[in-house]
């Protein structure tokens, strides 16, 4: 009973404290200045004392003023003592940026602040904005966004041009394009081969090369900076390219001033300039469902595909490098190569490599190993895409690839490994008196007693000769081989790269036995895992130690 009473009293005290907290909420606001220039942002701050949650602020809409928050509100707790009077602030601070787009007088209405069920309003403020963007009544700086198409399909290329025109010399500037700073948009530059010279301009946080031209108009000679961009909107719906804007300081003649040492110097007289472009609304259409192929994976544009191979004649077990290349107009990021699983009856298939993209081309490579001899074929490989110009799905087919596969040659490589020996021929049966039987008194029996001694001497001589050959051909490269194995160890988690590295090492050091050992590991099914890489590396190190043991010239590790 006592415990229940304590719980009830706690809840009542909490509710009472909450109501008192809301009753003590105070809201005030401040503007950093009430006068400014076109394009020069002002800062408006709202301080909410006595509340840290359940707060919602609604800014007003004012034509000619762009109002946006500068990040989320900050939670602040501070105590101020002035002339012995203590003031405590515990609450939230909201900061807004107000950008004037045109000159004149503006009445900034009250911001509504909702704290729980209570509503508060900031004091209205009058703002005076001066327009210094013209020279003798004429515009001296202009910005434009130009897009040839405003209705596209999802995944289709959208191109637009940013154009900045100047009638005056500019001393400093701040050029912004909101789309450039968005991280969810893949924005690319469109290269123009015959557009002329370029100069780098600071566009937000990036340096972008702009093409430069000059145009004579009624107002005078304009200097024009322009650049074309492209991106691929992936989601259907409404989309808008937000306006670009620039704030600059233009040179309006020169004036004489006195520097720190009393000398008369000539310095430019600067005036503020501001320009804002138009917005470009886009309508993104969904891809149609009618006629969509089962192999379609989202490619939009116009494409061509082909396959290539360095040779067409090979043996069973040989590796055939196959390259699939896609070219055309459209988004190449995210495209995957065709599925080759239907070829597993005749080939062992390695995974596709990572795509290599350059100048409108996307290239993938893989390895095919024939399982049988005969006339084999890689049939045409289809690639489905949506053509926005024809508003229909199409397929790009590669050419068929004919292969002539012969039986592989069985080579005895045992003599290449020191320590191995060939099998001796069976004892020859001698004929005596026309019968096939062994003659106990034949002189060949004496040769049998001498055979172990002769074989021993011959094997010793053969071993010395083999050691000399190994020393001359491989001995000087032992240190390089060990270094190569240590380098390969760094790519154990990437089996394809691991075996490619080892294969190149075998080619460089002329180790055919090692190449034969790696042949199955490199392309065999189920062998391309980090565990098998570690096991094969251990086996190669063991073989290396064995070769060094039989070699008279050992290199230091």
Tag the structure with descriptive keywords.
single chain; 557 residues; five-stranded antiparallel beta sheet; 6 helices; elongated
Can you describe this structure?
With 557 residues, this protein is α+β, with helices and mostly antiparallel strands. Helices cover 20% and strands 42% of the residues. Strands 14, 16, 18, 19, 20 and 21 form a 6-stranded antiparallel beta sheet that branches. Helix 3 packs antiparallel against helix 4 and helix 4 runs antiparallel to helix 5. The relative contact order is 0.07. The model is unreliable at 14-23, 409-438, 468-476 and 552-557 (pLDDT under 50).
Query: How much β-strand is present in the residues?
Result: 35-45%
Low-pLDDT ranges: 14-23, 409-438, 468-476, 552-557
The largest β sheet comes out as: 6 strands, antiparallel
Radius of gyration: 41 Å
Level of helix content?
A: 10-25%
Annotation, overall tally of beta strands:
37
Query: How confident is the prediction overall: mean pLDDT?
Result: 79
N→C terminal distance: 82 Å
Structural classification:
alpha+beta
The coarse silhouette is: elongated
């Amino acid at each position: 009973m006592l415990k229940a009473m304590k719980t009830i009293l706690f809840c009542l005290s909490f509710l009472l404290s909450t109501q008192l907290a809301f009753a003590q909420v105070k809201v005030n606001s401040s503007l950093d200045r009430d006068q400014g220039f076109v394009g020069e942002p002002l800062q408006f701050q709202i301080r909410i004392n006595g509340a840290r949650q359940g707060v919602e602020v609604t800014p007003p809409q004012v034509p000619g003023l762009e109002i946006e928050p500068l990040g989320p509100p900050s939670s602040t707790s501070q105590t101020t003592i002035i002339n012995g009077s203590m003031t405590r602030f515990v609450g939230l601070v909201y900061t807004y940026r107000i950008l004037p787009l045109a000159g004149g007088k503006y009445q900034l209405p009250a911001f509504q602040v909702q704290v729980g069920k209570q509503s508060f309003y900031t004091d209205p403020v009058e703002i005076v904005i001066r327009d210094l963007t013209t020279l003798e009544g004429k515009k001296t700086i202009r910005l434009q966004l130009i897009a040839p198409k405003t209705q596209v399909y999802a995944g289709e290329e959208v191109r637009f041009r940013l154009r900045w025109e100047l009638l005056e010399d500019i001393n400093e500037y701040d050029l912004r394009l909101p789309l450039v700073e968005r991280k969810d948009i893949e924005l690319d530059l469109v290269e123009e081969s015959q557009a002329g010279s370029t100069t780098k301009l600071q566009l937000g946080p990036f340096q972008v090369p702009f093409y430069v031209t000059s145009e004579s108009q009624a107002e005078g000679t304009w200097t024009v900076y322009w650049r074309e961009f492209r991106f691929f909107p992936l989601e259907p719906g409404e989309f808008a390219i937000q306006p670009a804007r620039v704030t600059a300081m233009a040179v309006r003649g020169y004036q004489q001033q006195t520097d720190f040492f009393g000398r008369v110097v000539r310095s430019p007289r600067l005036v503020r300039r501001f320009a804002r472009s138009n917005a470009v609304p886009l309508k993104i259409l969904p891809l149609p469902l009618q006629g969509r192929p089962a192999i379609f994976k989202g490619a939009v544009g116009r494409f061509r595909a082909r396959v290539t191979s360095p040779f067409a004649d090979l043996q069973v077990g040989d590796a055939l490098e196959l390259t699939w290349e896609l070219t055309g107009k459209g988004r190449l990021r995210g495209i995957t190569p065709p599925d080759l699983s239907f070829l597993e009856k005749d080939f062992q298939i390695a995974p596709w490599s990572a795509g290599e993209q350059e100048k409108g081309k996307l290239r993938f490579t893989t390895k095919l190993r024939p399982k049988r001899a005969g006339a084999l074929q890689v049939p045409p490989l289809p690639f489905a895409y949506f053509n926005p110009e024809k508003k229909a799905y199409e397929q790009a087919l590669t050419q068929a690839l004919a292969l002539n596969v012969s039986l592989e040659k069985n080579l005895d490589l045992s003599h290449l490994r020191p320590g191995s020996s060939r099998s001796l021929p069976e004892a020859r049966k001698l004929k005596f008196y026309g019968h096939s039987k062994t003659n106990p008194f034949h002189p060949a029996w004496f040769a049998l007693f001498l055979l172990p001694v002769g074989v021993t001497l011959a094997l010793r001589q053969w071993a010395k000769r083999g050691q000399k050959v190994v020393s001359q051909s491989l001995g000087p490269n032992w240190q390089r081989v060990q270094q190569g194995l240590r380098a390969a160890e760094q790519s154990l988690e990437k089996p394809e790269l691991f075996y490619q590295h080892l294969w190149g090492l075998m080619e460089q050091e002329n180790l055919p036995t090692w190449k034969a050992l790696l042949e199955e590991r490199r392309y065999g099914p189920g062998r391309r895992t980090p565990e098998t890489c570690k096991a094969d590396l251990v086996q190669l190190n063991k073989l290396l130690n064995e070769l060094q043991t039989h070699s008279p010239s050992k290199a230091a590790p």
